[in-house]
Structures are given as structure tokens and as C-alpha cells.
């Protein structure tokens, strides 16, 4: 004989309804738990208790007996002894000039003239050398340098052999303006001998100048200038 299930006792029939009811209760409990707030009970204020009220009862005063002061010992008597040695007083003379004092004659001294060096730098020398045409210039040093650059540009000639070989660079030239205004002691340093020879030729074309002077005496004045060789 087979057992038959009652339609009223079938749990699967209302499982969806039970699930929704349980979910609703769970959400409600969660909302209540999150929104639950607790407050501390305020402390009741008693107006009879005054915190700032002065204390009526003071602690008892304890008087301690201090030990008696120590007895003072007898103070020794001071005796003054006379000095046996006699002190000699030093007389301080006045430093003011005395009109009665005669000033002795001072012998004449021979002062040697300072030695002036033979060679002084172009920047340091008192009277710089004067390039022809700069006699009336206010700044003779600036005029000298300007005329030097014009002379290099006017006389400059790029050697054809150096151009064919692709030689270029800078030649540093150092020369000295002698005491008579002539050019001497020419020294140079460059990347190639052909460029150095052209730089030497340019310096050899310089005119005679007015020599530089130091304390009124003519001196040698070295001067340096770079000459650039650059292919276009």
C-alpha cells in the first residue's frame, strides 16, 4: 500500500514564500542593528557641591624646633705693620709739545728710485701702447684692440694649400711691442704650420707704434691675439 502525501503538508509548494519571509526578517534585523544607538546617561549636577569652594579644614601646622645658632668664634685682631721699604714715586712727564725744545736737524736721505721692469703686461701698464690713429682716442686700450682686429681682417689671406687640405682652427699669437715701438718676440701656436705661417705674416705687417710707458719710461709690452681659420 503506497503512502500518499497530503497537498496541505507539502513544503516545496510554499518554499518561495518562506524564503522571502525569512529574507525580509533578516534585512529588518540588520537595519535595526545598524541604526541602534546607545547614549551615556548624563551625570547629574549637584548644585550643593561647589568645586571652587575654599577648603575650610586646613592641615594642622607643625612647628619644628630649630637648633640653636652656632657660637661665634673670637675675631682675631688686625695689626697694621709699617713698611720698611720706602716707595719712590714715579713722575709722569707731560707729552705736550714744549716750545722751548729745539728740534734737531734731520739729515737728508737719498731715496732710490723704484726699479721698473722691462716687460709689463698690456692690461697692467700705466700708459698702453698707441696704435697709429688712436692718439686722440679717450680709451687708447680699446682703440688699440679695435685697430688690431681691423688689421687682421684687412691683411688676412687663407692659404690655398690649407684650404685644399681642409685645415682650420685657431692660432694663438703672442708678440711684444718693443721700447722703440717695433714688433718683436713673435710666438704662435696653432694646429698646422701653414696656418702659423699665415698668422706670422699678418703680424709682420703691423705698423710701428708708440711704445708703452711705466712711470714715464718706455717698457716692453706683450700682447696676445687669436687668429681663427675656418672653412666655409
TrEMBL record:
The chain crosses the membrane at residues 17-34. Keywords: Cell inner membrane, Cell membrane, Membrane, Protein transport, Transmembrane, Transmembrane helix, Transport. It comes from Croceivirga thetidis. It is found in: Cell inner membrane. Its main location: membrane. Pfam families: TonB_C (PF03544). It is a single-pass membrane protein. SUPFAM superfamilies: TolA/TonB C-terminal domain. Belongs to the TonB family. Residues 143-232 form the TonB C-terminal domain. This is TonB family protein.
